[in-house]
Design a protein that fits this description.
single chain; mainly beta; binds zinc ion
Length: about 80
């Protein structure tokens, strides 16, 4: 009997986290549902909290999802509010 081998599937370590479209140089410890990242260079993104277009090296993701971003300012406010 020949057993089939399927060794080609590459599973991500965290299936719930989406892959970063940016170059992340550093990932901080998650704070609640938010995780702060430092990017290699200042990057434009839309903050989902203040709904402004930002350009920064620091960006936070919610639940590890890169389609739900937050700027450093809002991230600090969220943490100071304890949520
Ligand atoms: Zn913001």
């Amino acid at each position: 009997m020949a057993s089939e081998s399927h060794q080609h599937s590459k599973e991500p370590s965290n299936p719930n986290a989406s892959e970063s479209p940016f170059k992340v140089t550093m990932q901080y410890d998650p704070q609640g549902e938010w995780t702060l990242h430092r990017l290699e260079s200042a990057t434009s993104f839309g903050c989902g909290q203040c709904n402004k277009q930002k350009k920064a090296k620091l960006v936070a993701t919610r639940h590890g999802q890169w389609d739900d971003l937050c700027c450093n300012g809002c991230y600090g406010l969220l943490l100071s509010k304890g949520k």
